[in-house]
Prior knowledge:
1 helix
Amino acid sequence: MTVYGWVILGDTATKRVNGQEVIVTAGKSGDIGVAIRAWEDAERHRMLYELGNLGRLVDAALAHLHGHHRTSGSHGKPAPQTDHIK
């Protein structure tokens, strides 16, 4: 039987996620539906955690870039002064 992309056979379910085969078993509860929901909840939390980390990394990179923007010269060197050119 296939349910929401899961192939369920007895107390075992499989699904391909990001090119990898995921195998979930019913475990102590004996309910494969509960096991699938638990795996999906854990995967959702993992993805949100990783997305948060990526967001913090981007924020730090943008803050770093903004901090170096004040010196518009190459490689952190100050831009040449052009006020003497008329």
